[in-house]
Amino acid sequence: MAGKKQFDVDAAVDAAMIQFWRDGYADTSVDDLSRATGLNRSSIYSSLGAKDTLFLRCLERYAARYGERYDAALSCAASDPVAAVRAFFDVTLDRIADPGLPDGCLIAQSAMAIPVLSPSIAAHARQALGSQRLRLRTALKAGRLTDEDAETFAVHAAAVNQSLAVMSRAGASPAQLRAVVGVTLDALAQALRASRT
């Protein structure tokens, strides 16, 4: 249409996602989003929605993008659950090590911001955290852990995964983060040995 500026919606949502990821929901203004996306305020509202709507889109995109990677990592859980969980953590550690991405995790940040989020976005943040636990639980059950042990390790691994993001934001080194993962993998390997005796 003549007179209308064309732009790549996916690129704009990605830029907004990085902005929210870097500064968090509460500390990101519409002006910040305008600078990040290169769009004026009216274009943001008319094409991407209000701040809450755009944040929800960003949170969904983030959860889908990394969810697919986590699912692929856990795909070998039936034959080697420890390797699968290691690969799961590697997705997070690779994301943390990527210099083109902000430190931390958009979902972890969102969970910490639940008191200032709208009820629908807070529910979506909780759902994203829950999805991580469920995908781990399913993988660990495929690895022949009992229901109880699969749930316990899924909760633990999901918590460790989120703590890696928080620790990275606080300046923990890659070696420190890998050491945290190592403790979890050792405990999982021990539980698997015990369940097979």
UniProtKB/TrEMBL annotation:
<dbReference type="Pfam" id="PF16925">
    <property type="entry name" value="TetR_C_13"/>
</dbReference>
<keyword id="KW-0804">Transcription</keyword>
<protein>
    <submittedName>
        <fullName>TetR/AcrR family transcriptional regulator</fullName>
    </submittedName>
</protein>
<dbReference type="InterPro" id="IPR036271">
    <property type="entry name" value="Tet_transcr_reg_TetR-rel_C_sf"/>
</dbReference>
<keyword id="KW-0805">Transcription regulation</keyword>
<feature type="DNA-binding region" description="H-T-H motif">
    <location>
        <begin position="29"/>
        <end position="48"/>
    </location>
</feature>
<dbReference type="InterPro" id="IPR001647">
    <property type="entry name" value="HTH_TetR"/>
</dbReference>
<dbReference type="Pfam" id="PF00440">
    <property type="entry name" value="TetR_N"/>
</dbReference>
<dbReference type="InterPro" id="IPR011075">
    <property type="entry name" value="TetR_C"/>
</dbReference>
<feature type="domain" description="HTH tetR-type">
    <location>
        <begin position="6"/>
        <end position="66"/>
    </location>
</feature>
<keyword id="KW-0238">DNA-binding</keyword>
<dbReference type="InterPro" id="IPR009057">
    <property type="entry name" value="Homeodomain-like_sf"/>
</dbReference>
